[in-house]
Design brief:
The protein has 123 residues and is an alpha/beta fold. It is built from 2 helices and 8 strands. The strands form 2 sheets. It has a 4-stranded mixed sheet, covered by helices on one side. The chain has a 4-stranded mixed sheet with strand order 5-8-7-6, with helices on one face. The protein is globular, with a radius of gyration of 15 Å.
Length: 123
């Protein structure tokens, strides 16, 4: 049986600012619903991903800036270029034996690492 990660909460201080940031990076805004007073659900999906993030009011008790997420990309240099073209500060490519990495943070300081690897055992 497959187990697939569907949704990861990302704590933010300003939902609209965070939503604009992730859209600028290329995420698709799948949902933006105020479920009720105190609960706003904003689901965003990275290009080509089966897993999304959720930001909003009443989503998580985690402190903004404490989430860390790693994403696999085909080309670290191209991913870095895309981030820089969107006005996002991104690290230089960090070449390691197990892949090439690029790091960036969202406006709240949540940390993202993009890993380009040649092959993955499970696809």
């Amino acid at each position: 049986m497959d187990w697939k990660i569907e949704l990861i909460p990302v704590p933010v201080t300003d939902v609209d600012r965070a939503k604009a940031f992730y859209e600028k990076v290329g995420f698709n805004a799948d949902h933006d619903h105020r479920v009720h007073e105190g609960l706003r659900f904003v689901q965003l999906t990275p290009p080509g991903s089966a897993c999304s993030i959720v930001i909003g009011d009443g989503i998580t008790d985690k402190t903004p800036g404490t989430q860390e997420i790693q994403v696999v990309v085909a080309d670290a240099e191209a991913a870095r270029r895309q981030l820089r073209e969107a006005g996002v500060e991104a690290s230089e490519v960090d070449a390691q034996a197990w892949g090439n990495f690029v790091y960036f943070r969202d406006p709240d300081g949540n940390r993202w690492s993009l890993q380009a690897i040649e092959s993955r055992p499970n696809g």
